[in-house]
Write a structure and sequence with these properties.
alpha/beta, Rossmann fold, 5-stranded parallel beta sheet, 8 helices, 5 strands, globular
């Protein structure tokens, strides 16, 4: 991957409507819920279920889903370590824009490397970045294997597959730990919502 050098003529323009203005109108704070976990751990399912509950509460939300983003914004990226890092960098920047808009943005990406997640955390103000570890064992994820990806990875059809031929580095101290390998979806949603209320993101 090679990118052109950033122009030195780019200047940040400050608008007239502040983040505080937007949050006041929305009735809640902006934040990014960064769901991370192995393929099949329930990231997408949980993030969409949490969004549905937040929507019922009147919150302004949006889910950035790993597969969906690769159809457009990150459609030019593969799955090498370098490409994965660029994928997460782009999502980090997009999520920052959503937070500035006063939106609760939920991201569902494997994001396997701690260093990359730390870089995204560094883009955000303190308490804006909420890491949600969807914790399910490799065995549990393989047993689900809804997309048949683990089977193909075991057969050598998919290279650089997280958990099989590429590592996954679990969060060491996530804001939210959800045992998606054992908890029901409803209970998992409640774990996340309880944190958001405690953190003052929603009332």
């Amino acid at each position: 991957m090679s990118l052109e050098q950033k122009s030195s003529n780019v200047v940040w323009h400050h608008g007239q409507v502040s983040r505080e203005n937007r949050e006041s109108m929305n009735g809640h704070k902006g934040a990014v819920l960064w769901f991370t976990g192995l393929s099949g751990s329930g990231k997408s399912t949980l993030s969409h279920a949490v969004e549905a509950k937040l929507h019922e509460l009147g919150a302004h939300t949006y889910v950035l889903d790993g597969d969906n983003v690769r159809h457009g914004l990150c459609g030019d990226l593969g799955f090498s370590d370098v490409a994965r890092r660029e994928n997460i960098r782009r999502i980090g920047e997009v999520s920052k824009l959503f937070v500035e808009a006063g939106v609760v943005v939920l991201t569902a990406f494997i994001s396997p490397f701690r260093e990359d997640r730390a870089v995204v955390r560094g883009l955000h103000q303190e308490h804006d970045f909420i890491e949600v570890h969807c914790a399910a064992s490799l065995a549990a994820c393989e047993n689900r294997d809804v997309k048949g990806l683990y089977k193909r990875a075991r057969q050598g059809e998919i290279k650089d597959f997280t958990g099989i031929s590429s590592p996954y580095e679990s969060p060491e101290d996530p804001e939210v730990y959800v045992n998606t390998g054992e908890l029901s979806l409803d209970d998992s949603v409640e774990v996340v919502l309880s944190y958001l209320k405690k953190a003052g993101v929603i009332s």
